[in-house]
Design brief:
By secondary structure, the chain is mainly β. It has two domains: 15-100, Trypsin-like serine proteases (Thrombin, subunit H, Beta Barrel), CATH 2.40.10.10; 113-230, Trypsin-like serine proteases (Thrombin, subunit H, Beta Barrel), CATH 2.40.10. It has one helix at 157-160; strands spanning 5-6, 15-20, 28-36, 39-42, 56-60, 73-82, 96-100, 128-132, 148-155, 174-178, 194-198, 205-213, 224-228. The strands form two sheets. The protein has a six-stranded antiparallel beta barrel with strand order 8-9-10-13-12-11. Strands 2-3-4-7-6-5 form a six-stranded antiparallel barrel. A hairpin with a 2-residue loop joins strand 3 (28-36) and strand 4 (39-42). The two termini are 26 Å apart. Residues 1-236 form the Peptidase S1 domain.
C-alpha cells in the first residue's frame, strides 16, 4: 500500500498472506480474505506462475510477517479454484478461491469477511479501506513487513473508464477506488487483498473488492482496480 500507515494487530482480522515457501527472502506473494473457516477468496492472477501449489501456505492473524505472534495461524492449500473465464490479458474475472487443509479457529485477531449479495448498494458506501503487505512506494517494489492500511474512496466506474482515466479498460465487474490525484493506492504484493467498506448503518465492514490491477501505483487518474465480490457472489 502506497501512502498508508501501519495497521494495528487485529484491525483487519480477515486478511491473509499467501506465501510460497520456496521463494528466497520475503515469501509473501499476495493477499486474500478469509470468508469461511476453510476458504479464502483472492485474485486469479496471483497464480499465473504457480506450478507447485503444494509449497504455498496461507498465514492469517499476522501483522508483522517476519515475526508471527501466537495469534497467527498457518495452513497449507488443499485446492485452488480459479475462475474458469479468467483472462490474464484483459484482467477479466480476476478471482480465485483457496480451500485450506484445515479450518481456521476464529479469535479476536481472526474473523471472517462479509461478502455482499446483490441487495447491498455498494456505490453508496462512503468509508472504505485497503490493506496489505505490498510495496509502499511505486518505484522500489519493496514489500512491507508490517501490514499497511489506508482509507480510499470508491470512484464511479464511468468516470474511471473515461478518456483521461482508463479509457474503457474497466469491466462491469470491477470497482475503482483511490483518489483522482493518486498518492494513496494498492501496489505490487497487495493483489488479491481486501477492499472493504463500512456499512452505512451497522458497525461492520463489507468485503466489496479484491485488489486486481492498476497502471503503476498511486498515479493521478489511474486508481486501483478491484474485482467486485458482489458481482461474483453466486460464483463464490
Amino acid at each position: 500500500v502506497v501512502g498508508g500507515t501501519n495497521a494495528r494487530p487485529g484491525a483487519w482480522p480477515w486478511i491473509v498472506s499467501i506465501q510460497d515457501s520456496w521463494t528466497v527472502g520475503s515469501q509473501h506473494i499476495c493477499g486474500g480474505s478469509l470468508i469461511t473457516p476453510q476458504w479464502v477468496v483472492t485474485a486469479a492472477h496471483c497464480f499465473i506462475n504457480a506450478s507447485y501449489i503444494s509449497t504455498w501456505r496461507v498465514v492469517i492473524g499476522a501483522n508483522r510477517l517476519s515475526q508471527l505472534g501466537p495469534e497467527a495461524q498457518v495452513r497449507n492449500i488443499r485446492r485452488l479454484l480459479v475462475h474458469e473465464l479468467y483472462n490474464n490479458l484483459t484482467h477479466r474475472n480476476d478471482i480465485a478461491v483457496l480451500e485450506l487443509d484445515q479450518p481456521i479457529q476464529c479469535s479476536s485477531y481472526i474473523q471472517l469477511a462479509c461478502v455482499p449479495d446483490i441487495s447491498l448498494r455498494v456505490e453508496e458506501l462512503k468509508t472504505c479501506y485497503i490493506s496489505g503487505w505490498g510495496a509502499t512506494t511505486a518505484r522500489s517494489g519493496d514489500e512491507s513487513d508490517v501490514l499497511q492500511e489506508a482509507r480510499v474512496h470508491l470512484i464511479d466506474v464511468s468516470l474511471c473508464n473515461s478518456s483521461w482515466w482508463y479509457r474503457g479498460e474497466i469491466h462491469h465487474h470491477n470497482l475503482c477506488a483511490g483518489y483522482e490525484q493518486g498518492v494513496i493506492d494498492t501496489c505490487q504484493g497487495d493483489s488479491g487483498g481486501p477492499l472493504v467498506c463500512k456499512d452505512n448503518y451497522g458497525d461492520y465492514f463489507w468485503l466489496v473488492g479484491l485488489t486486481s490491477w492498476g497502471r503503476g501505483c498511486a498515479r493521478a487518474r489511474q486508481p486501483g482496480v478491484y474485482t467486485s465480490t458482489q458481482h461474483f457472489y453466486n460464483w463464490i
